[in-house]
Every structure is written in C-alpha cells, then in structure tokens.
Amino acid sequence: MSNNPFAKLIEVSAFQVTSDDIVEGHPLPSLQYASMSGVEGGQDLSPHLQWSGAPEGTKSFAVTAYDPDAPTGSGLWHWAVINIPASVTELPTGAGDEHGSGLPQGALQLPNDLRLKRFIGAAPPAGHGPHRYYFVVHALDVEDIGIDPNSTPALLGFTMLSHTLGRAVLVATGEAK
Fold it and tell me: Quick one: three-class SS letters along the chain?
C-alpha cells in the first residue's frame, strides 16, 4: 500500500519499539478495536509499547497512533501523547484511557480526531479492506514540545519536524469486524 506518512519527511535515526500486545505486520487484537464505535470485543485499549536505542540528545518522547487508510482524505489520528520524559521507555496497556492513568508525570494526551483526549481503537468500515495502524515513538530534542494541550495531532506533527531526532515505528493491521 502507498501513503507512507513519513515518506516526505526529513530522514531521522531509527530506533526500536516493541509491544506485548501488537506485532509488526499482524492484525490488531480485539482489545485495540473501538468499543465506542460498536466493534464487538473492542475495548479502546492503547497497546503496551516499549522502546530502546533512542538517539543521544533525546530530551522527551511523543507517541502517536495513526491510520493513513481511513476514508477521510487525511487519515485518522487515534492517539497523541506529548512530553513523555526521556527517562521513560515504556507505556503499559491501557495507558491512553480517558484519565491517562498509565502515563508518566508530565505527559499529556492531545485530542485525537474525534476530539477525545484518549486512545480510540480501530474501526475500519465494512468493505474498506485492510488498514494500517502506525504506532510511533518520536525522540525529541526538547523536554516540552510547547504546543497548546488542545492542539491537533497534525499540528503536533508539524511542530515536531524541527525537533525530531529519531523515530521508532510499529505497524499493525486491521479490518472491519
């Protein structure tokens, strides 16, 4: 499939991200599907993410979840977390609930494309075929990305352009259930 969200961005160092919940190139488990969209078995649980090998000079991380295949013309942002301290290298399953209960001190969730400050699970429309879900950890050269907590993930992406030292990418798939 085309539409790689990083194809036209400046190339940065790659580092590693893994998960106890999702596997590169494999379908998302039901837990990462959208209960709020009525997907049977969906629980809107953000996946466990663990990363290593971030570039030297990393002062914070941001985490995003994005579906470039959503039928919107611009994809769909499922989750965005900013200002994760550089000492943090893991988020537990469910960290992205409506309270951000699994997020470290100082980290903030931005509103996703449904304008909810939380992770929203997958819900590809019936007959639309497979979607890709990019779970990305961005290593940044600032402790605070300096955007309004009500900013969109798209604005976050633009603001991160000049602050990104590295990127760790994990892509899972999903289809209508």
Answer: CCCCCCCCCCCCEECEEECCCCCCCCECCHHHECCCCCCCCCCCCCCCEEEECCCCCCCEEEEEEEECCCCCCCCEEEEEEEEEECCCCEECCCCCCCCCCCCCCCCEECCCCCCCCCCCCECCCCCCCCEEEEEEEEEECCCCCCCCCCCCHHHHHHHHCCCEEEEEEEEEEECCC
Q: Rounded to the nearest 5°, which phi and psi values hold at 24? A: -50, 125
d(CA 10, CA 83): 21
Architecture of domain 13-174: Alpha-Beta Complex (3.90)
- Full pLDDT tens readout for the chain, 177 residues: 467 888 888 899 999 999 999 999 999 999 999 998 889 899 999 999 999 999 999 999 999 999 999 999 899 999 999 999 999 999 999 999 999 999 999 999 999 999 999 999 999 999 998 999 999 999 999 999 999 999 999 999 999 999 999 999 999 999 988
Question: Whole-model pTM?
Answer: 0.96
Alpha-carbon gap, residue 18 to 26, rounded angstroms = 13
